[in-house]
Give the backbone structure.
Amino acid sequence: MPGHHFAFCILLCFLRAACLADSTSELDRVVDEVHRLERKGQGVILSGFVDMGYVYQFSNNRPNTQGYTADQAIGGEFNVNQLKLVLEKPLSGRTDEFEAGFRVDLLVGEDAAGFGVAAPVVSASQSFYLQQAYVELMIPWADGLQVQFGLLNPLLGFEADERVYNLNITQGLNSTFDPGPSGGILATCTLGEHITLIQGIINGSLSSTSAGIAPDNDGYAITGALAVSNPEGNAETQWAYHYAPFGDPGLASGQTENEALVGLNWVGTWAPLCLDDHLLLGYNLSYWWADEYSTANPASVFTTSCYARYQWNDWFSTAGRVEYTHDSNGQWNGFAPSPGSDDLWGYTCTLGIHLFEDLLLRSEYRVDWGNDVNASLDDDVHHSIAFQVAYEF
């Protein structure tokens, strides 16, 4: 019996050791899996904002001049402007080694209904718009070569799709002619600290496919930019172009002729050092030309805008925008009932209040005048007011 008891003890110890080994192995596997997930998600950032607003039109007709579709309602309307969600793994900024990242921008709300596929009015606040979705790669060449591939924001234009990123609540006349996001590839090369070159090829404005105006031609555009900043860091400027050899139906009122189209854009900002960054000045000039846009005649449009914002203190600011647009024969903006030139002017004044660091309150008055600024063909002046509440996270 003592021998059997000794053998039983040995067997029990062996089984216990085996169980502990299996348990330890399983625990190690779980820990490794958790660590792997943590490593995989390292550096991924979620951010965004919520933007609500109200716009009132002082006329009984829809204004043609306001860029956001949600701002074109007759009378007054409360709007769920935008809920923006950004998920990204940004590059570290190092240019001496290979590195990869990504970014996805999603807009939800009534502005999304205007940017993306049209939605019924009753459900416009529930519309989704995929603004950006790309993978980026840093290549250690020269002072760093950054390559982005996917759905990308355009290089041309001063005003953004996001209201909170602009100096004013409503979009200006000039935004009508800016391209929208497109599928493609962009390469950005920095030359020293103050010069940046960008070159790429895209499907065309607001297009994630290569479907062109004519079924036998791909719809694509070549785009690029040169950006320069000063050593003090208080001024910068950018020249950009957009060339579509077979036309681009996603621009402005929509090109319908299978002919070449080209656009040039010059933007810049300046914050005078003598005013300790309280004053910000900006400008935007754009010129677009097409041999045939929607009729047999060549069509061109020129638009210029000047911006100013003054930060009076930590919580209060004022901003203004003055604009002028000339459409050679009314094809780009589609205002004129028959071919003829359009001349439009606009003035916008915006008051901003930052009650908290991430909370923005703004109010705005705007007047547009010129040829047929309303849907009514005999109304050449349009007044509107707007209010906005936005919280950034």
User: Anything to note?
Assistant: The two ends are 74 Å apart (CA to CA). The helical segments are 2-40, 110-115.
